[in-house]
Amino acid sequence: MKPGTRALGIAESYGGTEHAESTDSSILSTRDAASDDATQTDSGDAQQSTVCGAVVRADRVVDGLSFDRWTVGGDDATDALCRLWRELDREDVRYVLVSGIAPAWFNVVDLHRVAAETNRPVISVSFEASDGLEAVLTEQFSGPALDWRLERYRDAPPRQRLEVDGEEVFVRAVGCDDDTAARVVRAFTPEGGRPEPLRVARMAARAAHQFGGN
């Protein structure tokens, strides 16, 4: 891949739950660590997660940042992700990388809608083995809140295990085949197991969240 090829990485930060960076399991301890009513702040407002979109070249040059928020336990992650794309207005970005599929306590991302909105391949990367989310979602939600999450989750392509620099990651791809997704993830992971656009986005989201006092 050419050094100047650009990808947009999207990752979040909220509360003190750094593991809530959207691994595919979302891990139940995400909610436990944020307290039993994780979606509420002391003021009664829905807790917000800070999300960053980072444009990074394959040669590790950071080429743009944008920030937004989505709701912990809400249904607005897809909307916020699409807003980030529009606000950046970067036609030179070739790929969109998303940290996981269920950020901010199961605010499940519609990968197909993101691919349609951006007209780019969308690759979801998670970092822990998982038996899937259906049992967890069924335990934690009911009614319409469960129905849309299950529908969106089931509509996503299956995860593919990928070894990158001796690390194991799990990849879902919409808009490209699995071989292309693997090539993109490896090209944007110069060291360690985390693609550079996601590493930069996570770091920037954490700093912005801390600065914002949330």
TrEMBL record:
HAMAP family (alphabetical): UPF0215
Q: Which Gene3D superfamilies match?
A: archaeoglobus fulgidus dsm 4304 superfamily
Name assigned to this protein = UPF0215 protein ACFQJC_14080
Q: Which family does it belong to?
A: Belongs to the UPF0215 family.
Q: Where is the composition biased (Low complexity)?
A: 29-48
Quote the InterPro entries the UniProt record gives.
Answer: Endo_dU
> Transmembrane residues, as ranges?
none
Chain spans, region Disordered: 1-48
